[in-house]
């Protein structure tokens, strides 16, 4: 197997291997790493997934990227350990399934990538010694998944920025009750402000002394493991090689890029439906070819998707031959006709999201939370344009309904059952720092925490 080479979407940084891309997060030219060529799986190999458990499919898919990065046995241990929870596919009618990606410890799909990355990056740090800081902005669920996955991993420290008014109480508690190597910071702004501060820190020479990487979906390490559940779902719901429609509620477009990766590796997709909430920069771009970010981002019910300028669009545009920089300026148009054949997008308002939660329950006894409801409604919008015609379709439910109890009670009149991971949150005291949207104070905060960390270690080795 040849090592995979990754290039920056800004086309100004030298290509790197996967290990470096994982440890850097963002390329030095502020672009995002994207494989120059993808390893491919034959249709026989994909067909054989039908009989395999989830962790084994993960190993089969991801080992193609790991030459020179991690040996096959180590990767097997990572996958077995990371994917020890169920991935239910709930049938709705004849050919539609809802894939519940909410059974991990933080009850969102972000556990899939965070748990894999924590184990792989934890191994790198163990091999190389030293210390690594994972800097992450969260609109709700990345923070809790990353905090849970990296908690107590030696040599790693995690700093999570979250928008103070935009995460639910349960989401906040998931980040703020952990101690040790996890630090949560409430920012008096929006998710885009958090993301912009984090991105700026990665290219700030004043922070060169602090080894930093990202666990946001600017890191390619988020996207590769997120390709696995598309293979898994197809192996369970499609006849051999039959193309599948996937509907993926989208914010930063990391989840749907997992499907783009799977397609590049050989998975047959009929259409990739990527609905958004009121932050509709992408469906507008797909329709018009003109990109305009939403500033400030709109606060919608599906809070983990309140992204005014999705960073992964740079990768999507690159996958279709174009070039978009980190600010959203298009320097070379992608092949829009091909994009429109492969993708469908639509904006689902909060009113339609609520309607979808109600209708799904009344018609199908299907329990959705706001993110999955955007996915479900998005599939319905697509089917109004192009009927399934016998193809299988899979909607991704990206969070557990118990993360949004108030909304569910208001709409359906009952509270969803709380999984044990979330129930345990109520008793623990919270602890977090606060910052305003101001890059200088954020930089000082990072420098202070870094020197505190080093000083703390020195004194503990002396004592
Ligand atoms: C993060 C998140 C999304 C959006 O995923 P992207 O990769 O940012 O598009 C959707 N639903 C939930 C519950 C999330 O946490």
- Please report the number of helical segments: 19
- The residue fraction in helices comes out at 40-55%
SS-based structural class? Answer: alpha/beta
Strand order of the largest sheet: 3-4-14-9-10-13
Extended strand count: 15
What can you tell me about this protein's structure?
By secondary structure, the protein is an alpha/beta fold. It has a domain at 80-106 and 222-419: 3-Layer(aba) Sandwich (Rossmann fold), CATH 3.40.50.1100. Helices cover 42% and strands 13% of the residues. It is built from 19 helices and 15 strands. The chain has helices at 18-24, 43-47, 54-62, 72-82, 110-128, 141-150, 169-176, 191-202, 220-223, 228-237, 254-265, 281-288, 313-319, 336-342, 350-364, 370-385, 405-412, 420-423, 439-462, and strands at residues 6-8, 33-35, 89-92, 96-100, 132-137, 156-163, 182-187, 212-214, 244-247, 269-273, 323-324, 330-332, 343-344, 393-397, 433-435. The chain has a 6-stranded mixed sheet. Strands 8-5-6-7-15 form a 5-stranded parallel sheet. Helix 7 (169-176) links the parallel strand 6 (156-163) and strand 7 (182-187). Helix 4 packs across helix 5 and helix 6 (141-150) runs parallel beside helix 7. The longest helix is centred in the C-terminal third of the chain and has 24 residues, at 439-462. It is globular, with a radius of gyration of 21 Å. It starts with 5 loop residues before the first strand and ends with a helix. The chain binds pyridoxal-5'-phosphate. Pyridoxal-5'-phosphate is lined by residues 108, 110, 140-141, 217, 249-255, 304-305, 371, 398-399.
């Amino acid at each position: 197997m040849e090592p995979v080479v990754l290039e920056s979407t800004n086309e100004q940084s030298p290509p790197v291997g996967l290990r470096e891309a994982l440890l850097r997060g963002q390329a030095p030219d502020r672009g995002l790493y994207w494989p120059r060529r993808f390893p491919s799986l034959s249709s026989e190999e994909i067909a054989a997934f039908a009989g395999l458990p989830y962790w084994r499919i993960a190993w089969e898919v991801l080992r193609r990227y790991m030459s020179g990065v991690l040996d096959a046995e180590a990767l097997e241990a990572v996958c077995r350990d990371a994917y020890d929870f169920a991935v239910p596919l709930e049938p709705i009618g004849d050919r539609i399934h809802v894939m519940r990606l909410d059974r991990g410890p933080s009850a969102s799909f972000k556990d899939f990538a965070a748990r894999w990355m924590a184990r792989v990056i934890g191994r790198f740090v163990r091999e190389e010694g030293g210390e690594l800081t994972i800097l992450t902005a969260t609109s709700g669920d990345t923070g809790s998944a990353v905090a849970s996955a990296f908690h107590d991993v030696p040599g790693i420290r995690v700093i999570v920025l979250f928008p103070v008014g935009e995460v639910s109480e349960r989401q906040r508690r998931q980040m703020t009750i952990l101690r040790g190597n996890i630090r949560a910071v409430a920012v008096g702004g929006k998710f885009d402000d958090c993301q912009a501060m984090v991105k700026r820190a990665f290219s700030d020479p004043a922070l060169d002394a602090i080894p930093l990487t990202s666990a946001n979906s600017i890191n390619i390490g988020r996207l590769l493991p997120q390709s696995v559940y598309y293979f898994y779902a197809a192996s369970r719901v499609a006849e051999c090689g039959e193309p599948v429609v996937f509907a993926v509620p989208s914010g930063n477009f990391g989840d749907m890029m997992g499907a783009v990766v799977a397609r590049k590796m050989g998975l047959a997709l009929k259409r990739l439906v990527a609905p958004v909430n009121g932050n509709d920069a992408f469906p507008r771009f797909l329709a018009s070819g003109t990109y305009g970010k939403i500033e400030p981002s709109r606060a919608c019910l599906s809070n983990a998707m309140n992204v005014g300028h999705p960073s992964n669009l740079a990768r999507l545009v690159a996958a279709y031959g174009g070039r978009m920089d980190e600010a959203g300026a298009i320097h070379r148009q992608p092949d829009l006709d091909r994009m429109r054949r492969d993708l469908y997008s639509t904006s689902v308002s909060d009113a339609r999201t609520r309607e979808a939660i109600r209708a799904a329950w009344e018609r199908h006894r299907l329990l959705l939370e706001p993110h999955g409801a955007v996915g479900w409604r998005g599939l319905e919008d697509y089917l109004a344009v192009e009927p399934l015609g016998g193809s299988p379709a899979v909607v991704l439910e990206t969070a557990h309904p118990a993360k949004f109890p108030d909304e569910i009670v208001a709409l359906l009149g009952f509270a969803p059952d709380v999984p044990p991971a979330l129930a345990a949150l109520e008793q623990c005291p919270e602890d977090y720092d606060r910052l305003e949207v101001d890059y200088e104070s954020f930089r000082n905060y990072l420098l202070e925490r870094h020197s505190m960390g080093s000083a703390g270690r020195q004194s503990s080795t002396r004592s």
